[in-house]
Amino acid sequence: MSANSQNLKNIGLKATLPRLKILELFQRADVRHMSAEEVYKALLQEDMDIGLATVYRVLTQFEQAGLLERHFFESGKAVFELNEGHHHDHLVCIQCGKVEEFYDPEIERRQIKVAKDRGFTVHDHALTIFADCSSESCPNRRKLPPRG
């Protein structure tokens, strides 16, 4: 029995072919954040006969089981990433959609302090910073004024 089959059984999901293929896709993908449509297209390229509704259903099941995390980065479109058990935040380019993950202990400390100062206890949080990336390959890159 493969490790993925056992992982699915451990969280109470039957190890069906669509579930195994979608989990495997997230584990080996170069892109960490994928929409349901991107998952569907990737599976079609692998000659996997699967419907878009099945992809949505499996992604939702994986999210509910804690295998995937759902984010809304651009215009309300949901993207999913494998939950690898470590917290991180995101930078998203509003021009090209590039997503960069980061962790900054100072930001983490400040968020807890801000909440505490206002009478709150943080249980979880998600920070997404929307910005312009400086990549030369960004198709809609804004030309920044010279510094100085």
Short structural summary:
The chain is an alpha+beta fold and 148 residues long. The chain is built from five helices and five strands. The chain is globular, with a radius of gyration of 18 Å.
Task: Explain how this protein is built.
- This protein is an alpha+beta fold and 148 residues long.
- 39% of the residues lie in helices and 18% in strands.
- It has five helices and five strands.
- The protein has helices at residues 3-10, 17-28, 36-45, 52-65, 105-117, and strands at residues 68-74, 77-82, 89-93, 99-102, 128-131.
- It has a three-stranded mixed beta sheet with strand order 4-3-5, with no helix packed on it.
- 14% of the residues are buried.
- The mean pLDDT is 85.
What is the number of beta strands? 5
Distance between the termini: 62 Å
**How would you characterize the largest beta sheet?**
3 strands, mixed
Global shape = globular
- Global Rg: 18 Å
Low-confidence stretches: none
SS content category: alpha+beta
Number of helices: 5
Helix content: 25-40%
**Order of strands across the main sheet:** 4-3-5
Compressed to H and E, one letter per element, the order equals: HHHHEEEEHE
> If you average the pLDDT, what whole number results?
85
User: How much β-strand is present in the residues?
Assistant: 15-25%
